[in-house]
Amino acid sequence: MASSASISRPRFRCFDPTNSYPATPDHPRYFSSAVSPSSSSSSSSSSPRENGFGDTMAISNNSEPKIVTGEGGYVLEDVPHLVDYIPDLPTYPNPLQNNPSYSVVKQYFVNADDTVAQKIVVHKDSPRGTHFRRSGPRQKVYFESDEVHACIVTCGGLCPGLNTVIRELVCGLTHMYHVKRILGIEGGYRGFYARNTVPITPKVVNDIHKRGGTILGTSRGGHDTSKIVDSIQDRGINQVYVIGGDGTQRGAAVIFEEIRRRGLKVAVAGIPKTIDNDIPVIDKSFGFDSAVEEAQRAINAAHVEAESVENGIGVVKLMGRYSGFIAMYATLASRDVDCCLIPESPFYLEGPGGLYEYIEKRLKEDGHIVIVVAEGAGEVLLSESLLKDEQDASGNKLLQDVGLWLSQNIKDYFSKQRKMNITLKYIDPTYMIRAIPGNASDNVYCTLLAHSAIHGAMAGYTGFTVGPVNGRHAYIPFCRVTERQNKVVITDRMWARLLSSTNQPSFLDPKMVAKKVAETKKEDTEAEAQLI
Ligand SMILES: Nc1ncnc2c1ncn2[C@@H]1O[C@H](COP(=O)(O)OP(=O)(O)OP(=O)(O)O)[C@@H](O)[C@H]1O
Ligand SMILES: O=P(O)(O)OC[C@H]1O[C@](O)(CO)[C@@H](O)[C@@H]1O
Ligand SMILES: [Mg+2]
User: Fold this and answer.
1) Cβ(157) – ligand 2 distance below 6 Å
2) Which single residue of 23, 131, 385, 527 has CA 20 to 30 Å from 337?
3) Counting atoms of ligand 2 from 1, which one is nearest the CA of 398?
4) Which residue's CA is the closest to the ligand 2 atom numbered 5?
């Protein structure tokens, strides 16, 4: 899919320019205050951590981001490394060098200075912008195979592909790095201190990618940082793989901070999960493709029902608490949808240009209409009529059922006010969509995510999330994926394509459109100014 955009643009809250010192044309510099690590090796090689620029490594003792600047407005937002706070770590040759499966691969190891550009459409004089460290195997690793004790935890809502990521983490660690100790943490974050752990082997996970859900179980809430890190320390875990959405990545970030504060040699790697696709920076999250595909079945059913009766109305609710990506892509894929309602695009029911007027038009012209509504759409309208302010255990807002509310209002309006005979069928496939296994494309994607995370942790990187940025997998600092949510930008071309494919009203007056365009431009300018 096209790179997902966000209404709120990068703000670089995690970037402290007051720590900067000037970059020279041939020597990019870290912005944080520099302290050279003393480096030693107990085995084959000895060197400070590569920074990819032949430059002295700059170490920050706190959670400052590691920013490298270069020529032409080049910025690298690097991820933390274990040597940032444990300087004397030995390194070892990567066991992949002797792995028969990978031995014929030319240039299997990632070049030390490979970075991935966040912005790929640039102008002649525009800055080169933010880059992230490219993911992949390094020549040297910071863990010996026998020393690794990894754990895997899944948190938040279900998502197609969760089991595939678990499987590929286990198989990747075992087959690529000969790791023998991998623990599954049961039931999300609270499992670290309140539930059992299970040893996992490739045999245990062999066919789990064919099943929906997560074999480890999941939960919301229950993040007690010090209890979690105590448990990591007590069990001798030194690689933590955390699979989950925005809340989970926030949780992983604080676990990493506590680990760093305690000076533990423990790598923390996040694998972003959410069918909502609301995680910024990365191209898309795993499970999203599967969700869009499965949604077609519900939309198809709604269409068949609606077109089989006189004045048939099919309403399908899809997930998307804050972001309407599933609804938007499911609509674009289906071509049977006449109206798509998402949280980012406010709508109204009555009067000229409103939803009721549009439904009536479609019924008169086609005899039926199919409406897709994302669960977070129309929140303002709903809160006006139903006051409820509840949260789940993780603090996420609990939403009213917009599909039911909309269906009831449509029925009332047409039968009572317009005295029309309509037949409305409401389909809520949300949990059926979330519970399926990953589709073929998500399964391949999950493998790449799991392998990226393993290579990063083995290479000593920590405090990072993995994911593709413009098609290339990268290591992204936690703060960049937690500082905002990815949202559909209704002033982008993709939303315009949707409007033109459904022919629905935009529900926006021209003044509002102008305001949105101006806001987006202002945010772009501010983000660029911070990069210079
Ligand atoms: N700011 C935070 N600090 C520490 N832990 C957090 C934070 N936010 C959320 N968590 C923890 O992360 C876990 C998952 O969070 P949440 O339920 O919001 O799901 P998620 O990861 O966002 O996934 P999704 O929303 O896609 O289902 C929960 O155990 C929650 O306690
Ligand atoms: O009912 P649960 O498990 O809290 O999950 C609901 C939420 O999970 C999500 O799918 C994100 O995983 C949201 O779209 C949805 O609101
Ligand atoms: Mg979330």
Assistant:
1) yes
2) 385
3) 16
4) 157
pLDDT in tens, 100-116: 887 777 778 999 889 99
User: Which ligand sits nearest to residue 396's alpha carbon?
Assistant: 1
Q: In this structure, are strands 423-427 and 312-318 parallel, antiparallel, or unpaired?
A: parallel
Domains along the chain with CATH numbers? 132-285+438-483 (3.40.50.450), 288-436+489-530 (3.40.50.460)
Residue 375 in contact with ligand 2 by CB distance below 6 A: yes
Å from CA of 102 to ligand 1 middle: 37
pLDDT at 133: 97
**Annotated catalytic residue 276:** yes
The answer to whether the complex's ipTM is over 0.90 is yes
Reduced DSSP (H G I as helix, E B as strand, rest coil) percent helix, strand, coil of the chain, to 5: 35, 20, 45
Q: Which ligand is nearest to the CA of 323?
A: 2
Instruction: Tell me the torsion sign for CA atoms 411, 413, 417, 421.
Output: negative
pLDDT digits (tens, 9 = 90+) for 275-329: 999 999 999 999 999 999 999 999 999 999 999 999 999 999 999 999 999 999 9
Judge whether 74 is annotated as a binding position.
no
Contacts of 419 (CB under 8 A, 6+ apart): none
Determine contact, residues 104/487, Cβ cutoff 8 Å.
no
